[in-house]
């Protein structure tokens, strides 16, 4: 080999050795964060709670052994206080023997007190910090976030994963950190996040476990409504549906209505697809929004025995479904406009898109304008498939 | 670096060309015979000379006897014991010459002066005879298995082709296995091998050109090609490169391979080989040139492209959809065998966020007890796999069972149970190991060796390092050529017509053209439009015109 090649090799070889390794972490040097919570301490400090995975408890494969093995603690929940989130995290690093690894964090739970004081104080950290993802789900807990993270799940391995899956199913509102932060940065809308709380749910039952065990699991019970960065109140699950309709985020779900001919019996409709259009109007004084919602449903369940395939009955079912959606929307709107005075429906953004010049004046007092705004909601439902199990055979004889 | 070598090589090649036959004769004279000897008319002188040269060769037999029982006409047979067919020699040469000669010559007068002529024309019942007046040719023929017949009073020898020695039967190929296809493979005897090729291609255009290589071994070499399909320049180049070889022994075709490669420093083989006659025939018909070496069943073929190593001849015998599917598997296996461990190391030590959470937790729990970094772990496993593989290759057949049990138990079971190795690592290494056997052995050597530098790169720089390494390999592959043909052809440079036989194996009725870069001289392989179709049973009664049973 020539001298030149040898020299080149001598230069390149150390380069390869020096270049790397700085972000190298063996797996058993990692403390994997699955869920994080932020609370406010009485002395106005920040208390973060981390749910860390305990890999040794995640015995996979055959080594778990058969039968009912004693339930090991699969997670380790640890809290620390600091004046900023980062300080609290660094204080935690003094207690945790491994590198705190945020890459797999699923949820960020904001405690009620913290949320009422203002989330801008803490959300900034999670956006800036390169190791956390912007796709983590943001939740507001009723009560302390710490309590929530300490719970465990029967079905999933950890409560954090369980909540993550719950939110991802999009039955209720689902907000990622980046969306939350965008709502926070925008003047045209205010953040909202699903409310989670601990609820007593049925425990595991099986042979030899006669007594009804109950334990607390995390459940989604509505939506936390923010004004600017402060939590101002809640929407219940029904109003949350209204919120989703107005935001145009409904992807699936059901509508329960009374059967048109037999009002004591009920019908279940499942939503196939829905569409929401928001059209702002402004005449210099009043802001008006024309919201048109249209959706399609399938008949899924029928308690009554009447024939629903006639055009009149179909019309009636569609009317009832539309009415139900309309009621939920106006409930949510009423609360947001009247009680909380905050636009959580992205209406301001829609206004901004349409009336750019006027927006410049209105944006600084948007929430007040929104509270005064006139909102017309038009709902149109379509029953696509009423199914073939509509009538009993005996009906022909009657 | 290569730049400096190339002109020097070209110069030596030119020299070889101009020297031509002169160079060959020089080589011979540089061998055992020092002078240019002619045979003398006197039998005894000749015998003494031969005996002098072959002194100490106890396997040479000198048999003197009388032609047609005439005291005045002495003849002598010289042959090598074990290399001749003894039955043929005694029945058809000695018996006819000594006893049946009077009948054979049928009245012609037997005189000493006419003896040589009579023997040659009337008495020898041997299918192949050759005359020579040169001593060194006699010696060479005797050592190759011919029987040399010297007649007193004549300065000439008759070389009788009565070769016949113990050789291996034609058996099933051991290295290129397949389910469907011929069950014969080449053997160690050159003549048998050329016969096997001739049996596949019964065509006057199939040319078999012989030469001898090796100062000491004088091994027979044959260059085989189909005239009219193979590029003449390519044939010339092959012969030129072979003539340049001046080595004392050629014991396997690997010797030749190393001496005619385009880039001798590359890890990737640039000369392909096979031990299946029908596979060789297929390559010849694509326009490639084969180099047969006496003494080995492995026949070299040039030029070769990297993708050949991922093809199997069974691809062409089985129906094309399954052939395409198995080629895909082979491509996947090639990538796995090259990169699986390094990818694993990179992901696990640098890019944990790329794993799904559940997988991360499962891996983390497996690695909890492992005392080493994953790189060390994977490296140790890879090395122990290589040890097992090498042991499996070298060990006597009787102890094979023991080694595989010990290997499987120790590496698979005990190491995992002891918590020294994570099960995931075992899975990755096992997958890698098996993948490397799925494609051609010579090419898998390259990926097997390159796996280790790639592992180091990904252990230091993560996926970044791995990709850099892979890019380096690809760049290297792009620079390679095999007898002038780009190694990555038909992908680089792109030859779209040849893509039908790369990953996809197109059905035979769609492969009307030979590979463009090698078979351009006679591009069309068959008549186009042979796609079988059900017979037309229209009203005109033209049924059977486009019948499926065309072939």
Q: What's the layout of helices and strands?
A:
The complex is a heterodimer of chains A (398) and B (551).
Chain A: H1 3-19, E1 30-40, E2 46-53, E3 75-82, H2 85-93, E4 99-101, E5 107-110, H3 112-117, H4 120-128, E6 137-141, H5 145-150, H6 159-168, H7 177-185, E7 192-202, E8 214-227, E9 230-235, H8 237-247, E10 254-258, E11 266-282, E12 287-302, H9 311-340, H10 347-354, H11 356-362, H12 366-372, E13 374-385
Parallel strand pairs in A: 1-4, 1-5, 5-6, 6-7, 12-13
Antiparallel strand pairs in A: 1-2, 2-3, 7-8, 8-9, 10-11, 11-12
Chain B: H1 2-19, H2 21-29, H3 43-53, E1 60-66, E2 74-80, H4 86-105, H5 112-123, E3 129-132, H6 135-144, E4 147-151, E5 157-160, H7 190-200, E6 206-213, E7 219-226, H8 232-244, H9 253-260, E8 272-274, H10 277-286, E9 289-293, E10 299-302, H11 314-317, H12 320-349, H13 357-367, H14 374-394, H15 400-417, H16 423-438, H17 441-479, E11 481-482, E12 485-486
Helix pairs in contact in B: 1-8, 4-5, 7-10, 12-14, 12-16, 12-17, 14-15, 14-16
Description:
The complex is a heterodimer of chains A (398) and B (551). The N and C termini of chain A lie far apart (102 Å). Helix content of chain A is 32%, strand content 30%. In chain A, helix 4 crosses helix 7 (177-185) and helix 10 packs across helix 11 (356-362). Chain A has helices at 3-19, 85-93, 112-117, 120-128, 145-150, 159-168, 177-185, 237-247, 311-340, 347-354, 356-362, 366-372; strands at 30-40, 46-53, 75-82, 99-101, 107-110, 137-141, 192-202, 214-227, 230-235, 254-258, 266-282, 287-302, 374-385. In chain A, the strands form 2 sheets. In chain A, strands 1, 2, 3, 4, 5, 6, 7, 8 and 9 form a 9-stranded mixed beta sheet that branches. Chain A is of the alpha/beta class and 398 residues long. Chain A contains 12 helices and 13 strands. With 551 residues, chain B is an alpha+beta fold. Chain B folds into 3 domains: 28-160, no CATH class; 190-304, no CATH class; 333-482, no CATH class. In chain B, strands 1-2-4-5-3 form a 5-stranded antiparallel beta sheet, sandwiched between helices. A 5-stranded antiparallel beta sheet of chain B has the order 6-7-9-10-8, with helices on both faces. Chain B is elongated and about 105 Å long. Chain B starts with a helix and ends in a 65-residue tail after the last strand. The A-B interface holds A 1-2, 5, 16-17, 19-21, 23-28, 30, 32, 34, 53, 55-61, 101, 103-104, 106, 133, 157, 161 and B 1, 348-350, 352-353, 357-358, 360-370, 373-374, 423, 456-457, 459-462, 465.
